Prior knowledge:
By secondary structure, this protein is mainly alpha-helical. It has one domain (28-439): Up-down Bundle (Growth Hormone, Chain: A), CATH 1.20.1250. The chain has helices spanning 28-55, 57-61, 67-98, 101-119, 125-128, 131-159, 167-196, 198-205, 207-211, 213-224, 231-238, 246-250, 255-285, 291-319, 322-344, 348-374, 382-399, 401-412, 416-439.
Amino acid sequence: MPAGTQVIGHPVKNSPHEETPGGAGSTPGRTAVATLAGTTLEWYDFFLYGTAAALIFNKQFFPSLSPAAGTLAAFSTFAVGFIARPLGGLVFGHFGDRIGRKATLVVSLVLMGVGSTLIGAIPNYDSIGFWAPVLLVALRIIQGIGLGGEGAGATLMSMEHAPAGKRNLYAGFPQMGTPAGLVLANVIFLVTNALLGDGAFTSWGWRIPFLLSFVLVAVGLLIRLRVTESPSFNRVLAQENVVRFPLLESLKVGFPRLALTLLAVVANSAVAYVFMVFALSYGTQQLGYDKQFLILSVTAAAVLWFATIPLWTKFADRHGRRTMFIAGSAAILVWCVAFFPLLNTGNSVLAVLALLGMGLIIPVTHCVQGGIIADTFPAHVRYSGSSVILQSGAILGGGLAPMISTALLNSGGSSTGVTWYLVVICAISLVGAVALFRLVPEGSEEPAAVRAESLSGV
């Protein structure tokens, strides 16, 4: 078994060959906080774009289109960021396995900050016409590349510093950055809107939260630069196990394992982005909910999401994540059946219940999926392999979800098609999770297909 790898379904036990964090220079707690801070800022930038795409960008960059078509076009630019994420995953994953986790994570944070800051500075359609959406798409691609390097790397950095028996807990810290970034983005969005008023905010005030990214990223860099390199990567260097093409080597775990892992995690991403992004445009344009009310409700749900992650990851460390992940996958499916009917009532209390339910259920699978993906691969190719699975799942799930949901809504005239879309993708993930855990049953070892020595010194 590769050093430090978890047998799926079992509480984590470090291999006797795994280095123990906490030695000289190792600071697991500081590293966990640094990865949380970094991912929070990265997701702040990414979610800020999603909120603006749902509520602002159709008017600023696609004014010649109808409201429905403009929203679809805005969500298409949102999807572009997800399409760019695998490129970031491939590039940052390659160098993360060759030169280290820390350096690549610093670059990814800078890249994300630059992209977001410049989005706040580009002219709108009325000023430069066609070039406005072109620049928006280009900067969205930069955002996607930056986040593609962040997702897998931050999880590895924290998990590989984790003390014995706490790998799920520490792998969960970067996952907490997702709801934390959403909360930060929505709070700043709401405060700016409240201070300026709807007219000024829609005209130019929406730029302020994007320009603020520069300051937030500078703070994040100060925190991130103080952490030490991953002990697992240091061990790879010491054993001279750095390979020339880590991505190709990571694929040797086999197609069944890779495919099932991808299927298992795709629904969480799809459901999360329908809840966080599509529901904003649907609720305001179709159901007449107040914009501030919906943003506040989604923010409250994100706070619940954030707060419950440590509870679920501790449970996974003590009892294993197999049953928890499958139960969480089933719970998401069930709640998707109820989600839009609750929103469609027009009742504010039931709408809040629908959104809080998402905030309670989504973290059950989200908090451990990064660790499940990472533990598929040995340390010397873990960044590359994890990036491919994570970013592919993000495209198939989250990146396309708001656009597909909008298209289904426009074609069918109701949310029924969106509900069926979510139910189908959740069912696929549930079947994938069950099959994955049967492929690697309790008590078995990880696949031996990836051999650390096969490309050593090449």
